Amino acid sequence: MSRGAAASRRLAWLLCAPALAAMLLVAAWPMLHALWLSLFRYDLRFPDRTEFVGLHNYLSVLGSEVWWQALFNTLLITVASVSVELVLGFAFALVMHRALVGRRIVRTALLVPYGIITVVAAMAWRFAFDPVTGFVDALPGLDHAWLAERGPAFFVIVQTEIWKTTPFMALLLLAGLALVPEELLRAARVDGAGAVQRFRRITLPLMRPVILVALLFRTLDAFRIFDTVFVLTRGAQDTESVSLVGYNTLVTRLNLGLGSAVSVLIFLCVLAIAALYIRGFGIDLSRREEGR
Amino acid sequence: MTSARGRRERLLWGAGSVLVVCYALVPVAWLLSLSLKRGADLGDHRFLPAVVSLEHYRAVFQDPQFAAALWNSVGIAGLSTLAALLPGLLAAYAIVRLEFPGRRLLLAATLAIAMFPPVSIVGPLFDLWRSLGLYDTWPGLILPYMTFTLPLAIWTLSAFLRDIPWELEKAARVDGATPMQALLRIILPLAAPGVFSAAILVFLFAWNDFLFAISLTSTDNARTVPAAIAFFTGSSRFEQPTGSIAAASVVVTLPVVLVVLLFQRRIVAGLTAGAVKG
Hey, what CATH topology would domain B58-276 get? Predict the structure, then answer.
């Protein structure tokens, strides 16, 4: 290897060192620490009773109703919100792509839900569906104890999530739509292809990589749902998400051993979802970094 | 194609635009209207206030907890942005401009962090921060925010840096500029829009975070706006603080709306740079 290459290598590592150090110290190391803690009985309220218990914490978590219920809830919220977001996001993206007059206004309006604090968004919807302060109850046919029953509570959670994050989906898809050559669509139209046919045969296949990346990001994000559920129900009516279970065990009950086991299991779930997308759908994330 | 058909289509897309705008803005309008209702009217089930009153805004601005939270949020999110952008910029430069064997490793690491569930490290950080004296302090939140926004910063920045015409740097050197001059005078101005985009996205992330904010803080020392709003108790313990929460929410949402209005092009560019290009 030439001396120039070696020097550039050294410089590269030097430049990357601060970022790498932060990621190792504040993310990787605490994760390993969680792995370690999960093997102990370690309750901050009874620190003197700390002892090594092997996989006992994992057995407790995996044997508990709460974990499986929360996992089911989280998957339900994830699948429901991400699938609606994809459809709605596509509709919004098409509106922005096609509308000549209102395009800028639509884009500005959509950035408001994206930029708003999630807790604030959840508060707005909580007040809207509240039996005392809300206006939804007053609408005909919608008189319901929304957050006091399981089904309706899920509906409110999912629709809050959809409202907050569809703009992200729509903006990514809009950028993807710009990659579809207009001449191709026009040619297909001349050849007699209908709108649906053009969308299914031309737009969708060309946008596949963008759609998959958007789906991957949103799925992982939705699986980590915490703020919305915390504000809307705090997990009441059996709406707890896995992140909420982790938080309650760790921070509210101060049971670091058991809570760490929950944390590690959540991490494994996220890994599994990422692997599913990357292997199953063949997203090549590294390719996008290689430049054009 | 007939012009009637074209007009009908345009009308359809126009109507769609109106619908989308309403969908995006109704909850914000609702918060605003709720915050302007009188305390006695909060339960009137109407969308718009019968009488406009500023009582909740007065209450919120007299509340020292809210002022503290606002200061904490602005300071912590601002410093986190700086803390993430500097190492992010260095790493992005290395990724775009230098060949080195660890490049893929670095990108894999950032990808892993981007997918990482924050709740997985809340426990250990809570434990560590208490023993290191970082619990309930600004650095205690800035460190995780910096770390979790690094992937965002690195991706966005490297996507923008890749588009810079680097030949200009060489040209400036040929014309007699020192390497530092070339970087500061030529490259930095070209990179500024990308850096700005990344900064907005990082700031919004830190500004929005709730999980770390409630797990790693306990008092006005470092409690940020989302945590304060979620745990708002109001001036009176017996009155539902709905109005105050709504007013506080509007106060913290307005700056975001303003930023969005002013810099929407930059935000959208940053959002899509990492995900769509290449």
Answer: MetI-like fold (1.10.3720)
How many angstroms separate the Cα of A205 from the Cα of each of A186, A187, A190, A198, A291?
A: 17, 17, 20, 10, 22
Per DSSP, what are the bridge partners of residue A43?
A255
Cβ–Cβ contact A264 with B under 8 A: yes
Burial A69-88 (b: 16+ CB within 10 A, else e): ebbebbbebbebbbebbbeb
Contact between B119 and A224 (Cβ < 8 Å)? yes
For residue B230, the one-letter residue type is A
- Per-residue pLDDT band at B240 (split at 50, 70, 90): low
Which among A9, A94, A172 has CB closest to B275?
A172
- Name the residue ranges covered by the structural domains of chain B: 1-53, 58-276
| DSSP state letter for A133 | T
Whether the per-residue pLDDT at B63 is higher than 50: the answer is yes
Q: How many CB pairs under 8 A join A and B?
A: 317
Cα(B27)–Cα(A194) distance, integer angstroms: 36
Asked whether the beta carbons of A137 and A131 are under 8 A apart, the reply is yes
Residue B211: Cβ-neighbour burial (10 angstroms; 0-12, 13-18, 19+):
buried
Is the CB of B24 less than 8 angstroms away from the CB of A109?
Answer: yes
Integer distance in angstroms from the first to the last C-alpha of chain B? 36
Count other Cβ atoms within 10 Å, centred on residue A275: 10
ipTM of the complex: 0.89
d(CA A189, CA B6): 14
> Domains in chain A and their CATH numbers?
3-52 (no CATH), 56-289 (1.10.3720.10)
Distances, alpha carbon A214 to alpha carbons B133, B275, B278, in Å:
39, 8, 15
Task: Say how many residues make up chain B.
Answer: 278
First to last CA, chain A: 26
What are residue A234's phi and psi, to 5 degrees?
A: 55, 20
A122, A159 contact by CB (below 8 A): no
Q: State whether residue A180 sits within 8 Å of chain B by CB.
A: no
* Residue A290: predicted pLDDT: 39
Q: Which residues of A touch B245 (CB under 8 A)?
A: 123, 127
* Whether A213 contacts B275, CB under 8 Å: yes
Q: What pLDDT, in 10s, does the model give residues A154-205? A: 999 999 999 999 999 999 999 889 888 989 999 999 998 888 899 899 999 9
Residues constituting chain A: 292
Q: Could you tell me the sign of the dihedral formed by the alpha carbons of B89, B92, B98, B101, in that order?
A: positive
